Amino acid sequence: MDSNQATVYVVDDEIEIRSAIGRLCEETGHQVRLFASTDEFLRERLSDGPSCLVLDVRFPGTSPTGLELQRKLAESGVPIPIVFISGHSDVRVSVEAMKRGAVEFLPKPFREQEILDAIRHGIERDRRRMERERAVREARQRVEALTSREREIMLLMAEGLVAKQIAARLGVSEVTVKVHRARMMRKMELRSPIEVARLIDSMGREAETTRASAGQPQI
């Protein structure tokens, strides 16, 4: 699959529903994968590109429900945006799905534009996530090129300290701090202390997400 093209996964036990959604998505230029159950979807190798999952809430037999699949994906560190669809009016289920981060919860029957708008929103969310992760990866590569002193100064800047305070903390002159700070900012391609703080925060959040999903079974 083209990693730049969005992929829409449709999981619904009603062939008419999943075929109709699949056709709409293909007409709008998306790659489409259709599944009759959550068990089938769990055996799929997901695309490396932006994607969205259109997921029914209930399934017959022993297949996991939509909410169970949502939880399983979250526990496994699979951040695919989910658009729920359901033929049953259940406020509790819809509230729980949205609390867990679902993009939308649409009752059947829904209008074509409703489902297309929800899918577009999900794909845009996934594109933004991928862009953030790519930016953090690139930043980590640049961090590796910093000296230990430059890294120290970057972290202290992220805490909100100015050159004079950093100098006192490290026991060096303010001029020395300014020299190292300028080199660090140039290597990291940053322009202000605010950008430094944002970068450190985003790198920290990514590390927390990685630790949270470590050791979990992969889909």
TrEMBL record:
Origin superkingdom: Bacteria
UniProt keyword terms in alphabetical order = DNA-binding, Phosphoprotein, Transcription, Transcription regulation
Q: Does the keyword DNA-binding apply?
A: yes
Q: Which GO terms describe its biological process?
A: phosphorelay signal transduction system; regulation of DNA-templated transcription
Query: What CDD domains does the database record attribute to this sequence?
Result: LuxR_C_like (cd06170), REC_FixJ (cd17537)
Q: Tell me which Pfam families the record gives.
A: GerE, Response_reg
A molecular-function term among this protein's GO annotations: DNA binding
Quote the InterPro entries the UniProt record gives.
CheY-like_superfamily (IPR011006), Sig_transdc_resp-reg_C-effctor (IPR016032), Sig_transdc_resp-reg_receiver (IPR001789), Tscrpt_reg_LuxR_C (IPR000792), WH-like_DNA-bd_sf (IPR036388)
> Sites of the modification 4-aspartylphosphate?
D56
Domain called Response regulatory: residue spans: 7-123
Q: Where is the HTH luxR-type domain?
A: 139-204
User: How is this protein named in the record?
Assistant: Response regulator transcription factor
What species is given as this protein's source?
Answer: Bradyrhizobium niftali
